[in-house]
Request: fold
Amino acid sequence: MKTIKPTPSYQIVLPDGVQEQVDGTVSSFWINGDPILLQTSSYVREGGEHLSASQRLKDRMLKQNAHWQVWNEQLCLTAGVDQAIGEFTGDDGVVWIHSYFVWPHLTVYATVSGPGDTVRNRKNWALQSLRGVALNIQ
Reply:
């Protein structure tokens, strides 16, 4: 396992062998030969209205015309995080899991995508990695 800091604000623990690509504010992670893609981005709040994780997910659901299933399960195990998770299946059969992890000053947005059975398996490397998203700034 290795710890990666996509930004100075947060870190994530990923399995050895994970490939990484940063494109602007989005970090993409994958394992060669595995059909799952994990993407993360973050936003540091310096002012303005604080939006909850569930409000952020609701806003995302309004933008994406699809049949969403909201998860009751909590992914991130870090104390003090507000989180909301939802999924939908695209027209091409790809399952998309959207997760928001919100602290008073930071929001981490993560997507996991790939084949349904693989992506929904709670033991897949991407969902396991989201359990350990942690703050680098307090």
